[in-house]
Design goal:
The chain has 472 residues and is of the alpha/beta class. It has two domains: 61 residues, no CATH class; 329 residues, no CATH class. The chain is 29% helix and 13% strand. The chain is built from 13 helices and 16 strands. Strands 2-15-12-13 form a four-stranded parallel sheet. A four-stranded parallel sheet has the order 4-3-6-7, sandwiched between helices. Strand 10, helix 9 and strand 11 form a beta-alpha-beta unit.
């Protein structure tokens, strides 16, 4: 294949409907870690260090952003590991017994005095991916597109090096359907724990192909045997069982996802989140909460409750509804329509998407809400205009350091509302930092979305601080 098709696996004709899709099974002949040398190759002789090979051409993609920073960092770490192996072998077999250096030695290529006293080669921190890849309090998922970010977060939550680390099912959504993606985040909640991968215009991007091969979902009792949960107008590989949630519009798809979740989990929803169709920035935090809680996301227009949403609420008229966003996103007439059905309605909002996300992170009403108002939590930070990235990052809010989604409206600096919030929940200790609580921030997107200066600022605000001595 050439051009764009070289970087993607063709799944189905773009014009075909879901029922007519035909697929080829995802290949596992070349896993993601195929390029990492095996430590079992005992007969392989160490080769002299060479200059790094020229990078292979990057697969074509939509010209949104530069090459993913996280993938660069991973490649650099793999290169560093290879250098360490070569140095260890050469040093172990041909060491001269000379006195050891008194300080930390740089990573070298094995140069010695016999080479004319050349200065040993070393790698800079930026070649290792730091600080853009990670700091002591942050980790970046630096894909240049949602498909890459979704693949990375899926593998972060499910490393998949052994079968026990793999999910039973994977949700598949078209990149064009941000509403379906946010609604599908609820499938990451227990007991399903299905991460999300993206398709794009009838094709499965290379990042999704590789992640799907590594995740290797087989289905389970929790997914009723389905390995693929196809959401909306998306195809799925035909090699395993598929469960589908589809509808004629975004509100209908979200309602179908809620029913699929209820059928597979066997539990009625405890709460609904009502998110705005016309203001994705206000809807974005719903994905993280749905993945963490299992509360389905439904949608409303600014001044109208869609028929599909109303029907879903009528199936559970006593379940509370939490309206996400101010009246400019979902007005009071919609709230009254919800209450007329019989559901209690509560609004969680801020005046803009950034403030709205902070308000949701702080919010608590019984068992609903993050209630993150103290130190010791995880956070996910993404750019306001990228609702697909909110869905892609949802597994990070339902595993590891489980935490709310926060938004930034700038590449360079944290918004004041987020900075003040981080200061308010900044961790501290008196005498023993090992007994303290810690904060951690996942940064989603490449440096065009959130640059390294903002990442460093978030890291500093998350840093554990000494606040005095016990007894004083």
């Amino acid at each position: 294949m050439t051009g764009q098709s070289a970087s993607r696996q063709k799944l189905y004709p773009t014009a075909a409907r879901p029922s007519a899709y035909t697929f080829r099974p995802v290949s596992r002949e070349r896993p993601i870690n195929a390029d990492v040398p095996s430590d079992k190759d005992e007969d392989r002789q160490p080769e002299p260090a060479k200059a790094p090979a020229q990078e292979a051409p990057q697969p074509s993609r939509q010209p949104r952003r530069p090459i993913p920073g996280a993938l660069k960092g991973i490649a650099a770490l793999v290169l560093l590991a290879i250098v360490f192996i070569v140095v260890a072998v050469i040093g172990g077999s041909g060491g001269s017994g000379e006195e050891e250096p008194s300080g930390p030695a740089p990573v070298t290529s094995g140069a010695s005095e016999e080479r004319g006293g050349e200065e040993p080669a070393s790698q800079s921190p930026t070649e290792l991916g730091y600080p853009a890849f990670a700091t002591n309090n942050t980790t970046r998922v630096g894909g240049s597109d949602p498909a890459t970010n979704a693949a990375a977060t899926a593998l972060a939550a499910f490393p998949s090096t052994i079968p026990a680390q793999r999910p039973a099912a994977v949700a598949l959504v078209e990149e064009a359907d941000w509403e379906a993606a946010i609604a599908a985040a609820v499938l990451m909640a227990p007991p399903l724990r299905a991460p999300l991968l993206f398709a794009a215009a009838g094709e499965l991007p290379e990042a999704s192909v590789e992640a799907l091969a590594a995740l290797d979902p087989q289905g389970s009792a929790a997914s009723d045997g389905a390995a693929y949960l196809a959401i909306g107008d998306v195809g799925a590989p035909g090699d395993r069982e598929v469960a589908r949630a589809s509808g004629r519009d975004p509100a209908a798809i979200a309602a179908a996802v809620a029913r699929l979740r209820e059928r597979l989990s066997g539990d009625a929803p405890k709460h609904f989140v009502l998110a705005p169709l016309t203001a994705p920035g206000f809807a974005m935090p719903a994905a993280a909460w749905a993945a963490r809680s299992g509360d389905p996301v439904l949608f409303a227009a600014t001044s109208k409750l869609p028929k599909a949403t109303a029907a879903a609420l009528r199936e559970h008229p006593k379940v509370p509804v939490y309206v996400l966003g101010p009246s400019s996103a979902i007005d009071s007439a919609v709230v009254r329509a919800v209450e007329k059905i019989g559901n209690e309605a509560h609004r969680v909002s801020g005046e803009d998407p950034v403030g709205n996300a902070v308000a949701f992170a702080r919010y608590a009403d019984g068992s609903f809400g993050w209630d993150v108002n103290d130190p010791g939590h995880g956070f996910v930070l993404t750019r306001e205009g990228d609702p697909l990235d909110a869905a892609a990052a949802a597994p990070l809010s339902a595993s590891g350091t489980w935490g709310p989604l926060l938004l930034t409206d700038s590449a360079a600096t944290l918004p004041a509302a987020v900075r003040d919030y981080f200061l308010d929940v900044k961790p501290g200790y008196t005498n023993d930092p090992t007994r303290a609580f810690y904060n951690h921030v996942w940064v989603i997107g490449d440096q065009e979305a959130i640059d390294v200066n903002q990442q460093a600022e978030a890291s500093e605000l998350a840093e554990l601080a000494k606040i005095g001595d016990e007894g004083q």
